[in-house]
Structure formats: structure tokens, C-alpha cells
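ok so I'm stuck.
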Amino acid sequence: MKRMKTKLQSVLRKKMGNQGFSLIELMVVIAMMAALVAVLAPQYLKYVERARVSADETTAAEVLNAVKIAAADPNLTWAAGVTYTIQWSSSSAITVTASDSSDTKTFVDELKGTLGETLPEIKSATHKATADDVYQVTVTVTTSGATIADDWV
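replied:
not stuck anymore, here's the structure
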């Protein structure tokens, strides 16, 4: 009987030795994971913001190219001495205004034909945080041609 009892105890000890991880081991693993997250999370957030800025810059380039295409259209009549302002804002809308009361409908139709009715919204916190949440293209028409300027305002 004694021999059986000692045999049973040795079997139980072997099984108990393979129960799992100790509390210290688990705490070490959790601490290592926390350190990795602390190092990698800011880098990931920077990466996401760079991607958003890049997307905004690409959309702004699309707006500028659409204005250039519209400006090169021989069927589009421009009023000399007029400054057209094209804005793309956080609301995703394209707005076109003229420095006088001239008709901008043809120009707006040309832009919408090239760009579509709306654009993606401005996503980057860089542009939103610095109040640069409007991309503006200015077309100044003179008798010798048109000049185009663009900037975040």
C-alpha cells in the first residue's frame, strides 16, 4: 500500500510540474508586450498620418490638374481681368467663385466633368490642425493668358 501511495504521489508531482506558466513568467511576457506597444504605436500613428497627408496631396494635385485641363479647353471662354477661385474643403465640395459677377457655370461644369461632383474629404490631421483645411487654386485671366496658383489656406 505504501509503495502504491508513493507511486501515486510521484505521478501527481509529474503532472503538477506541467500545469502551465507561473505568474512571474506571465508578468514578464505582458511587460515585454507593453514595451513593444509603447515603442511601435507612435510609429504606426506617424505612418497613418503620412498616408493621410499623401492622400490629401494627391487629391489636391487632381484639383490642380483639372483646373489646368479646364484652362486649356478651347471651348471655354474666359473673361479677361477676372480671377477665379476654386476651393476644395473638408466638406468635400468644390466651390468656384469669380472676382466679378461673371458667369462661372461653364467653368464649374468643366471642373465637375473632370473631377466629379465631390472629392474625398480632407483626412490628414496636419491640414486640419493648422487650419489648412482648404486647398485653393486661383486662376487669374489676363489678355495674354491665364496664370494658375495653388496653396493650402
